[in-house]
Amino acid sequence: MRTILKLTVRGVRCILSRLYSGGRPPAPLGGRILTNPDDVFQHNMWDHVQWNEEEREMAQQKAEENSKHKIPVEEQTKYDRDANKYWDRFYEMHHGKFFRNRSWLFTEFPELLPPDVGGICSSEKSQEYCSSPPICASFPGQHADLRILEVGCGAGNSVHPIINTIRGSKAFLYCCDFSSRAIELVQEHPDYDHAVCHAFVRDICDTTSPFPFPPGSLDIILVVFVLSAIHPARAQGVVNSLAGCLKQGGIVLFRDYGRYDLSQLRFKKGQCLSDNFYTRQDGTCVYFFTKDEVHNLFSNAGLEELQNLEDRRLQVNRGKKVVMHRVWMQSKYRKPYRLSSSV
Ligand SMILES: C[S@@+](CC[C@H](N)C(=O)[O-])C[C@H]1O[C@@H](n2cnc3c(N)ncnc32)[C@H](O)[C@@H]1O
Protein backbone atom coordinates (compact mmCIF):
# COMPACT_ATOMS: atom_id res chain seq x y z
CA MET A 1 0.00 0.00 0.00
CA ARG A 2 2.98 2.32 0.65
CA THR A 3 3.92 2.22 -3.07
CA ILE A 4 0.38 3.11 -4.07
CA LEU A 5 0.32 5.97 -1.57
CA LYS A 6 3.71 7.29 -2.70
CA LEU A 7 2.53 7.42 -6.31
CA THR A 8 -0.73 9.04 -5.20
CA VAL A 9 1.13 11.71 -3.23
CA ARG A 10 3.47 12.42 -6.17
CA GLY A 11 0.39 13.00 -8.35
CA VAL A 12 -1.00 15.51 -5.86
CA ARG A 13 2.00 17.82 -6.21
CA CYS A 14 1.28 18.59 -9.85
CA ILE A 15 -2.48 18.47 -9.73
CA LEU A 16 -3.57 21.64 -7.96
CA SER A 17 -2.61 23.99 -10.75
CA ARG A 18 -4.42 21.87 -13.33
CA LEU A 19 -7.66 21.38 -11.45
CA TYR A 20 -9.56 24.41 -12.49
CA SER A 21 -10.82 25.79 -15.72
CA GLY A 22 -12.58 29.03 -16.50
CA GLY A 23 -11.80 32.52 -15.32
CA ARG A 24 -13.39 32.29 -11.86
CA PRO A 25 -11.51 31.90 -8.60
CA PRO A 26 -10.97 28.20 -7.82
CA ALA A 27 -13.40 26.55 -5.45
CA PRO A 28 -11.63 25.25 -2.35
CA LEU A 29 -12.61 21.55 -2.53
CA GLY A 30 -10.74 21.04 0.68
CA GLY A 31 -7.15 21.74 1.54
CA ARG A 32 -6.09 18.62 3.38
CA ILE A 33 -3.23 17.45 1.18
CA LEU A 34 -1.41 14.21 1.88
CA THR A 35 2.26 14.89 1.22
CA ASN A 36 3.77 12.17 3.40
CA PRO A 37 2.31 8.65 2.99
CA ASP A 38 3.16 7.92 6.64
CA ASP A 39 0.51 10.46 7.68
CA VAL A 40 -2.34 8.73 5.88
CA PHE A 41 -4.10 7.49 9.03
CA GLN A 42 -3.99 10.88 10.70
CA HIS A 43 -7.19 12.10 9.04
CA ASN A 44 -10.45 10.61 7.77
CA MET A 45 -10.23 12.28 4.37
CA TRP A 46 -7.50 13.67 2.07
CA ASP A 47 -8.25 16.12 -0.75
CA HIS A 48 -7.00 16.46 -4.34
CA VAL A 49 -5.75 12.91 -4.58
CA GLN A 50 -4.46 11.66 -7.94
CA TRP A 51 -4.71 8.03 -9.00
CA ASN A 52 -1.79 6.11 -10.32
CA GLU A 53 -2.01 3.69 -13.26
CA GLU A 54 -2.33 0.65 -11.00
CA GLU A 55 -5.26 2.12 -9.07
CA ARG A 56 -7.01 3.18 -12.26
CA GLU A 57 -6.67 -0.28 -13.77
CA MET A 58 -7.93 -1.96 -10.60
CA ALA A 59 -10.97 0.31 -10.53
CA GLN A 60 -11.69 -0.31 -14.20
CA GLN A 61 -11.44 -4.04 -13.63
CA LYS A 62 -13.86 -3.96 -10.69
CA ALA A 63 -16.39 -1.95 -12.70
CA GLU A 64 -16.05 -4.35 -15.64
CA GLU A 65 -16.62 -7.30 -13.33
CA ASN A 66 -19.70 -5.89 -11.64
CA SER A 67 -21.27 -4.86 -14.95
CA LYS A 68 -20.55 -8.04 -16.92
CA HIS A 69 -24.08 -9.33 -16.40
CA LYS A 70 -26.70 -6.68 -17.09
CA ILE A 71 -30.23 -6.92 -15.72
CA PRO A 72 -32.44 -8.15 -18.62
CA VAL A 73 -34.04 -5.25 -20.53
CA GLU A 74 -37.60 -6.43 -19.81
CA GLU A 75 -36.87 -6.21 -16.05
CA GLN A 76 -35.28 -2.79 -16.37
CA THR A 77 -38.42 -0.85 -17.40
CA LYS A 78 -39.81 -0.74 -13.87
CA TYR A 79 -36.78 1.16 -12.53
CA ASP A 80 -37.43 4.01 -14.96
CA ARG A 81 -41.25 3.88 -15.01
CA ASP A 82 -41.64 3.65 -11.21
CA ALA A 83 -38.58 5.70 -10.25
CA ASN A 84 -40.57 8.18 -8.14
CA LYS A 85 -42.23 5.32 -6.24
CA TYR A 86 -38.83 3.84 -5.32
CA TRP A 87 -37.73 7.27 -4.06
CA ASP A 88 -41.03 7.73 -2.18
CA ARG A 89 -40.35 4.44 -0.41
CA PHE A 90 -36.79 5.58 0.29
CA TYR A 91 -38.02 8.76 2.03
CA GLU A 92 -40.78 6.85 3.80
CA MET A 93 -38.08 4.65 5.32
CA HIS A 94 -35.28 7.13 5.99
CA HIS A 95 -37.26 10.40 6.38
CA GLY A 96 -34.79 13.29 6.26
CA LYS A 97 -32.06 11.36 8.03
CA PHE A 98 -30.17 9.63 5.20
CA PHE A 99 -28.30 12.51 3.54
CA ARG A 100 -26.39 14.93 5.72
CA ASN A 101 -26.86 18.67 5.35
CA ARG A 102 -24.52 19.83 2.62
CA SER A 103 -21.82 21.48 4.73
CA TRP A 104 -19.76 22.25 1.59
CA LEU A 105 -22.62 24.03 -0.14
CA PHE A 106 -21.62 27.68 0.32
CA THR A 107 -17.87 27.01 0.18
CA GLU A 108 -18.08 25.29 -3.17
CA PHE A 109 -20.98 27.31 -4.49
CA PRO A 110 -20.60 30.85 -3.08
CA GLU A 111 -22.79 31.97 -6.01
CA LEU A 112 -25.73 30.88 -3.81
CA LEU A 113 -25.06 33.68 -1.34
CA PRO A 114 -27.21 36.65 -2.30
CA PRO A 115 -25.19 39.89 -2.70
CA ASP A 116 -27.06 41.46 0.23
CA VAL A 117 -25.86 38.68 2.57
CA GLY A 118 -22.23 38.72 1.56
CA GLY A 119 -22.32 36.93 -1.77
CA ILE A 120 -21.13 38.14 -5.16
CA CYS A 121 -20.74 41.93 -4.89
CA SER A 122 -23.42 43.98 -6.55
CA SER A 123 -21.26 45.24 -9.43
CA GLU A 124 -20.30 41.66 -10.30
CA LYS A 125 -23.88 40.60 -9.80
CA SER A 126 -25.25 43.14 -12.20
CA GLN A 127 -22.87 41.76 -14.79
CA GLU A 128 -23.54 38.12 -13.93
CA TYR A 129 -27.24 38.08 -13.34
CA CYS A 130 -28.96 40.64 -15.39
CA SER A 131 -30.81 40.25 -18.59
CA SER A 132 -34.22 39.03 -17.50
CA PRO A 133 -36.94 38.83 -20.08
CA PRO A 134 -39.96 41.05 -19.38
CA ILE A 135 -42.15 39.06 -17.00
CA CYS A 136 -45.87 39.81 -16.83
CA ALA A 137 -48.02 37.21 -15.02
CA SER A 138 -47.62 36.92 -11.27
CA PHE A 139 -45.76 33.94 -9.82
CA PRO A 140 -44.07 33.01 -6.51
CA GLY A 141 -40.75 34.81 -6.15
CA GLN A 142 -41.74 37.31 -8.83
CA HIS A 143 -40.18 40.29 -7.02
CA ALA A 144 -36.94 38.57 -6.06
CA ASP A 145 -33.58 39.86 -7.31
CA LEU A 146 -32.00 36.42 -7.25
CA ARG A 147 -34.04 33.32 -8.15
CA ILE A 148 -32.61 29.90 -7.32
CA LEU A 149 -34.08 26.51 -8.22
CA GLU A 150 -32.94 23.24 -6.71
CA VAL A 151 -34.04 20.20 -8.72
CA GLY A 152 -34.25 16.77 -7.06
CA CYS A 153 -34.04 18.47 -3.67
CA GLY A 154 -34.87 15.32 -1.68
CA ALA A 155 -35.68 15.95 1.98
CA GLY A 156 -34.14 19.43 1.83
CA ASN A 157 -30.53 18.94 2.90
CA SER A 158 -29.56 21.90 0.72
CA VAL A 159 -32.95 23.65 0.80
CA HIS A 160 -33.05 24.35 4.53
CA PRO A 161 -29.51 25.76 4.77
CA ILE A 162 -30.27 27.97 1.74
CA ILE A 163 -33.54 29.18 3.28
CA ASN A 164 -31.73 30.11 6.49
CA THR A 165 -29.14 32.00 4.47
CA ILE A 166 -31.41 33.96 2.14
CA ARG A 167 -34.10 34.83 4.69
CA GLY A 168 -34.23 38.63 4.86
CA SER A 169 -32.48 39.04 1.50
CA LYS A 170 -33.95 39.69 -1.92
CA ALA A 171 -33.44 36.09 -3.00
CA PHE A 172 -36.11 33.41 -3.53
CA LEU A 173 -35.72 29.63 -3.68
CA TYR A 174 -37.77 27.14 -5.67
CA CYS A 175 -37.22 23.46 -5.10
CA CYS A 176 -38.74 20.36 -6.60
CA ASP A 177 -38.56 16.61 -6.47
CA PHE A 178 -40.67 13.91 -8.14
CA SER A 179 -41.10 12.17 -4.79
CA SER A 180 -44.15 13.71 -3.13
CA ARG A 181 -42.95 12.26 0.19
CA ALA A 182 -39.66 14.19 -0.17
CA ILE A 183 -41.55 17.44 -0.78
CA GLU A 184 -43.72 16.78 2.29
CA LEU A 185 -40.55 16.38 4.36
CA VAL A 186 -39.18 19.66 2.97
CA GLN A 187 -42.40 21.48 3.84
CA GLU A 188 -42.84 19.88 7.27
CA HIS A 189 -39.36 20.97 8.39
CA PRO A 190 -39.36 23.83 10.93
CA ASP A 191 -37.00 25.87 8.72
CA TYR A 192 -39.37 25.80 5.72
CA ASP A 193 -40.63 29.31 5.00
CA HIS A 194 -43.23 30.16 2.34
CA ALA A 195 -42.00 33.74 2.26
CA VAL A 196 -38.69 32.71 0.67
CA CYS A 197 -39.29 29.23 -0.74
CA HIS A 198 -41.74 27.43 -3.01
CA ALA A 199 -41.45 23.63 -2.92
CA PHE A 200 -43.35 21.58 -5.51
CA VAL A 201 -43.61 18.05 -6.88
CA ARG A 202 -42.15 17.81 -10.36
CA ASP A 203 -40.55 15.15 -12.55
CA ILE A 204 -37.70 16.93 -14.32
CA CYS A 205 -37.75 14.27 -17.06
CA ASP A 206 -41.15 15.67 -17.99
CA THR A 207 -39.83 18.44 -20.20
CA THR A 208 -43.23 19.66 -21.42
CA SER A 209 -45.16 20.74 -18.28
CA PRO A 210 -44.58 24.34 -17.22
CA PHE A 211 -42.65 25.33 -14.10
CA PRO A 212 -44.20 27.74 -11.57
CA PHE A 213 -42.01 30.55 -12.96
CA PRO A 214 -41.56 31.82 -16.52
CA PRO A 215 -38.88 30.42 -18.86
CA GLY A 216 -35.64 32.39 -18.74
CA SER A 217 -36.29 33.73 -15.23
CA LEU A 218 -33.77 31.92 -13.02
CA ASP A 219 -30.32 33.06 -11.90
CA ILE A 220 -29.13 29.74 -10.47
CA ILE A 221 -30.09 26.09 -10.79
CA LEU A 222 -28.65 23.68 -8.25
CA VAL A 223 -28.32 20.08 -9.49
CA VAL A 224 -26.83 18.02 -6.69
CA PHE A 225 -26.73 14.21 -6.86
CA VAL A 226 -29.85 14.12 -9.01
CA LEU A 227 -28.77 13.66 -12.65
CA SER A 228 -27.07 10.43 -11.55
CA ALA A 229 -30.46 9.14 -10.40
CA ILE A 230 -31.92 9.56 -13.88
CA HIS A 231 -31.57 7.17 -16.84
CA PRO A 232 -28.52 8.39 -18.81
CA ALA A 233 -30.61 8.44 -22.01
CA ARG A 234 -32.82 11.12 -20.45
CA ALA A 235 -30.09 13.33 -19.02
CA GLN A 236 -29.58 15.52 -22.10
CA GLY A 237 -33.31 16.32 -22.37
CA VAL A 238 -33.34 17.29 -18.69
CA VAL A 239 -30.31 19.57 -19.01
CA ASN A 240 -31.74 21.20 -22.16
CA SER A 241 -34.99 21.93 -20.37
CA LEU A 242 -33.17 23.36 -17.31
CA ALA A 243 -31.06 25.58 -19.57
CA GLY A 244 -34.33 27.03 -20.89
CA CYS A 245 -35.25 28.14 -17.34
CA LEU A 246 -32.07 30.22 -16.96
CA LYS A 247 -31.72 33.92 -17.68
CA GLN A 248 -28.84 34.95 -19.88
CA GLY A 249 -25.85 34.92 -17.55
CA GLY A 250 -27.63 32.46 -15.22
CA ILE A 251 -25.66 29.45 -14.00
CA VAL A 252 -26.05 25.77 -13.23
CA LEU A 253 -24.20 24.45 -10.18
CA PHE A 254 -23.66 20.71 -10.47
CA ARG A 255 -22.23 18.11 -8.14
CA ASP A 256 -22.59 14.35 -8.57
CA TYR A 257 -20.93 10.93 -8.55
CA GLY A 258 -17.78 10.46 -10.65
CA ARG A 259 -16.63 7.38 -12.58
CA TYR A 260 -15.07 4.70 -10.35
CA ASP A 261 -16.18 6.27 -7.10
CA LEU A 262 -16.10 3.79 -4.22
CA SER A 263 -19.88 3.45 -4.43
CA GLN A 264 -19.63 2.25 -8.06
CA LEU A 265 -16.96 -0.32 -7.27
CA ARG A 266 -18.98 -1.67 -4.35
CA PHE A 267 -21.87 -2.81 -6.53
CA LYS A 268 -22.31 -6.56 -6.74
CA LYS A 269 -22.91 -8.50 -9.94
CA GLY A 270 -26.55 -8.41 -11.02
CA GLN A 271 -27.17 -4.74 -10.21
CA CYS A 272 -25.97 -3.20 -13.47
CA LEU A 273 -28.56 -1.74 -15.86
CA SER A 274 -26.15 -0.43 -18.52
CA ASP A 275 -22.53 0.75 -18.56
CA ASN A 276 -21.84 2.72 -15.37
CA PHE A 277 -25.55 2.73 -14.45
CA TYR A 278 -26.78 0.57 -11.59
CA THR A 279 -29.81 -0.06 -9.42
CA ARG A 280 -29.49 -0.31 -5.67
CA GLN A 281 -31.30 -2.91 -3.54
CA ASP A 282 -34.09 -0.38 -2.90
CA GLY A 283 -34.76 0.17 -6.64
CA THR A 284 -33.25 3.67 -6.85
CA CYS A 285 -30.67 4.10 -9.62
CA VAL A 286 -27.28 5.74 -9.96
CA TYR A 287 -25.01 6.71 -12.85
CA PHE A 288 -21.29 7.55 -12.57
CA PHE A 289 -20.12 10.46 -14.75
CA THR A 290 -16.83 11.32 -16.43
CA LYS A 291 -15.64 14.87 -16.87
CA ASP A 292 -16.17 14.70 -20.65
CA GLU A 293 -19.72 13.45 -20.25
CA VAL A 294 -20.56 16.33 -17.90
CA HIS A 295 -19.00 18.78 -20.31
CA ASN A 296 -20.95 17.40 -23.27
CA LEU A 297 -24.26 17.43 -21.39
CA PHE A 298 -24.02 21.10 -20.49
CA SER A 299 -22.31 22.43 -23.60
CA ASN A 300 -24.79 20.57 -25.86
CA ALA A 301 -27.46 22.55 -24.02
CA GLY A 302 -25.75 25.78 -25.12
CA LEU A 303 -24.08 26.53 -21.78
CA GLU A 304 -20.48 27.65 -21.36
CA GLU A 305 -18.06 26.11 -18.90
CA LEU A 306 -16.94 28.04 -15.84
CA GLN A 307 -15.66 25.03 -13.96
CA ASN A 308 -15.60 21.29 -14.60
CA LEU A 309 -13.47 19.19 -12.33
CA GLU A 310 -13.10 15.86 -10.67
CA ASP A 311 -13.02 16.03 -6.90
CA ARG A 312 -10.84 13.04 -5.99
CA ARG A 313 -10.42 12.20 -2.33
CA LEU A 314 -8.97 9.47 -0.20
CA GLN A 315 -11.40 8.35 2.49
CA VAL A 316 -9.70 6.66 5.42
CA ASN A 317 -11.13 4.14 7.85
CA ARG A 318 -8.64 4.65 10.63
CA GLY A 319 -10.05 1.83 12.76
CA LYS A 320 -9.78 -0.79 10.02
CA LYS A 321 -6.69 0.82 8.42
CA VAL A 322 -8.37 0.90 5.01
CA VAL A 323 -8.21 3.65 2.36
CA MET A 324 -10.90 4.16 -0.28
CA HIS A 325 -11.07 6.45 -3.29
CA ARG A 326 -13.99 8.85 -3.64
CA VAL A 327 -14.70 10.62 -6.91
CA TRP A 328 -17.22 13.40 -7.35
CA MET A 329 -17.81 15.75 -10.27
CA GLN A 330 -18.21 19.44 -9.65
CA SER A 331 -19.13 21.84 -12.40
CA LYS A 332 -20.49 25.30 -13.11
CA TYR A 333 -21.96 26.25 -16.47
CA ARG A 334 -23.36 29.58 -17.59
CA LYS A 335 -25.98 30.55 -20.14
CA PRO A 336 -24.18 32.95 -22.45
CA TYR A 337 -25.35 36.49 -23.04
CA ARG A 338 -26.94 36.90 -26.43
CA LEU A 339 -25.71 39.93 -28.28
CA SER A 340 -28.69 42.05 -29.18
CA SER A 341 -28.58 42.92 -32.87
CA SER A 342 -28.23 46.65 -33.37
CA VAL A 343 -30.73 48.23 -35.68
C1 LIG B 1 -29.51 11.11 -4.25
S1 LIG B 1 -30.94 12.04 -3.93
C2 LIG B 1 -30.26 13.67 -3.71
C3 LIG B 1 -31.18 14.58 -2.97
C4 LIG B 1 -30.63 16.00 -2.78
N1 LIG B 1 -30.32 16.65 -4.04
C5 LIG B 1 -29.42 15.98 -1.88
O1 LIG B 1 -28.32 16.19 -2.37
O2 LIG B 1 -29.59 15.71 -0.69
C6 LIG B 1 -31.66 12.16 -5.55
C7 LIG B 1 -32.97 12.90 -5.56
O3 LIG B 1 -33.37 13.13 -6.90
C8 LIG B 1 -34.77 12.93 -6.98
N2 LIG B 1 -35.07 12.63 -8.39
C9 LIG B 1 -34.62 11.57 -9.12
N3 LIG B 1 -35.12 11.62 -10.36
C10 LIG B 1 -35.90 12.73 -10.43
C11 LIG B 1 -36.71 13.31 -11.45
N4 LIG B 1 -36.82 12.73 -12.64
N5 LIG B 1 -37.38 14.46 -11.18
C12 LIG B 1 -37.27 15.04 -9.95
N6 LIG B 1 -36.54 14.53 -8.94
C13 LIG B 1 -35.87 13.39 -9.18
C14 LIG B 1 -35.05 11.78 -6.02
O4 LIG B 1 -36.38 11.73 -5.59
C15 LIG B 1 -34.10 12.13 -4.88
O5 LIG B 1 -34.72 12.95 -3.94
Task: Give a written overview of the molecule.
This protein is globular. Helices cover 31% and strands 22% of the residues. It has one domain: Vaccinia Virus protein VP39 (Rossmann fold, 3-Layer(aba) Sandwich), CATH 3.40.50.150. The strands form 2 sheets. An 8-stranded mixed β-sheet has the order 1-10-11-6-5-2-3-4. Strands 7-8-9 form a 3-stranded antiparallel β-sheet, covered by helices on one side. The protein has helices spanning 2-15, 53-66, 73-81, 83-94, 105-108, 122-128, 159-166, 180-188, 232-245, 262-265, 291-300; strands at residues 45-46, 146-151, 171-177, 197-201, 218-224, 246-257, 272-274, 277-279, 285-287, 304-317, 322-334. Helix 4 (83-94) runs parallel beside helix 8. By secondary structure, it is of the alpha/beta class. S-adenosylmethionine (SAM) is lined by residues 83, 87, 99, 152-154, 157-158, 177-179, 182, 203-205, 224-226, 229-230. Belongs to the methyltransferase superfamily. METL family.
How are the SSEs placed, and which strands pair?
Elements: H1 2-15, E1 45-46, H2 53-66, H3 73-81, H4 83-94, H5 105-108, H6 122-128, E2 146-151, H7 159-166, E3 171-177, H8 180-188, E4 197-201, E5 218-224, H9 232-245, E6 246-257, H10 262-265, E7 272-274, E8 277-279, E9 285-287, H11 291-300, E10 304-317, E11 322-334
Parallel strand pairs: 2-3, 2-5, 3-4, 5-6
Antiparallel strand pairs: 1-10, 6-11, 7-8, 8-9, 10-11
The structure holds S-adenosylmethionine.
Note the total helix count.
Answer: 11
The CATH class, by name, is Alpha Beta
Q: Please give the domain count.
A: 1
Provide the CATH topology.
Answer: Rossmann fold
Count all strands and give the number.
11
**Average predicted confidence as pLDDT:** 87
EC number: 2.1.1.-
Enzyme class: transferase
InterPro entries: Methyltransf_12 (IPR013217), METTL2/6/8-like (IPR026113), SAM-dependent_MTases_sf (IPR029063)
Domain Methyltransferase type: 149-251
